[in-house]
Design goal:
Elements: E1 11-16, H1 20-33, E2 37-43, H2 46-56, E3 60-63, H3 72-79, E4 87-92, H4 97-106, E5 110-113, H5 118-129, E6 134-135, H6 139-147, H7 159-162, H8 166-176, H9 181-188, H10 192-206, H11 211-220
Parallel strand pairs: 1-2, 1-3, 3-4, 4-5, 5-6
Amino acid sequence: MSDDQRPREPVTVFLVDDHALFRAGARTELESLSDEVRVVGEAGSVAEAVAGIARARPQVVLLDVHMPDGGGAEVLRRVRPELPDVVFLALSVSDAAEDVIAVIRAGARGYVTKTISSRELVRAVIRVADGDAVFSPRLAGFVLDAFADRPGSAPISDPELDLLTPRERDVLRLLARGYAYKEIASELFISVKTVETHVSSVLRKTQLSNRYELSRWASDRRLV
């Protein structure tokens, strides 16, 4: 039997949702409908999710957007730098533009609402595992509007980005492009000490800890 004819291994899935009843139902539905997916873990909080994903190393994480201790974007922020190969698919009751854009900017590969049928969810999981981007109807339009570089496209507000001053954004943009502090100072006609002050402020506001994380954060928001 050739490699193409061999049955593929099930896509491993990790469930993140603060409602235990929903997680139990989703696990049952996913595993009963198809042998193409296998649930390898679940979590009900950001902290549990970060630890569980690191332990289980799933291919796909089904990620709730809103949770009491930070939500899906926080899970993405903490997991992606360490496990860049894990794919995240947001699964939420919300179809608000700001929620969709926030998790896509943070690195999710798609966003579907909980009105999706069980069979459609299985297909969505398999598709994102294969590299596709998947969205519930009409949600893709939010993403296109937010990321399209065309006149008249309405920018979607990013609360985290909005915390930064214009000068802090300038510093972050150059930092993410690989400029040294001295080069940033020269480019912006400010002192190295002022650059350091701006970087410290950005780190504090974004709750990130180093230059690498800042660069990824800036890239996700298309500042680079």
